[in-house]
Amino acid sequence: MSKIDRFFERGLAVLFLTVTFSSHLSASGPVQLQACGVFGALESAVSPVCPGKLIGGFRTDGNRCPQAFDALQNLEFDDDLHQRWYTRFCTGRCKGFALLEFCVEDDSGWHDLVDVMSQRVASHERSRVRAELWALGRMIGFEWAKRNHLRKISTDDLRAWYPKFRADSDTWRAIRQLCSSAERKLSS
Q: Coil, helix or strand for 69?
């Protein structure tokens, strides 16, 4: 057997062991996610006040709505790859991915979507809609970023949901519809 054959044989064995063992990893503790409508988006879009606390939100405004968001706060990932895919979901960037992990960058990270969708509401509602969108993105992104055989929200789901979400001129209705779709997938 040549050196090249032995190299590939060992390389495939290492690849097999990595895939086999890493597929059995799970989160080490409960994940801190909030349900859709954490600030009442499912009931009413009238009040600009954020009546609760958003996990990851900080620097609140006069309506108690967070002005900034730490997408990683209180999340416990299955492994490093789960965290990298979650970050990809949020930013649209493939930072830290190897060539064979097949990440494709684009300009459609969740943070960009939050900016676009929040501009469609009246200025006095923007803080609240941003907080609702951050909570929704955290819930969807954390699930989507899991390994394919573990996740309940797939890339196909995102491809089906996003065009409708972005096209809806009523941001509050779009949030309610996306939230319902995501919750249905998570409860299945």
A: strand
Q: How far apart are CA 95 and CA 75, in angstroms?
A: 19
Contact 49, 64 (CB under 8 A): yes
- Could you report the per-residue pLDDT of 99-138, keeping only the tens digit for each? 777 888 887 799 999 999 999 988 888 888 888 899 899 9
CA 118 – CA 110 distance, rounded (Å):
12
Residue type, 139: M
In this prediction, residue 50 carries a pLDDT of: 73
E strands in the chain:
57-60, 66-69
CB under 8 Å to 34, separation ≥6 — which residues?
54, 55, 135, 138, 139
Residue 25, sorted as left (phi over 0), alpha (psi -120 to 50) or beta, turns out to be: beta
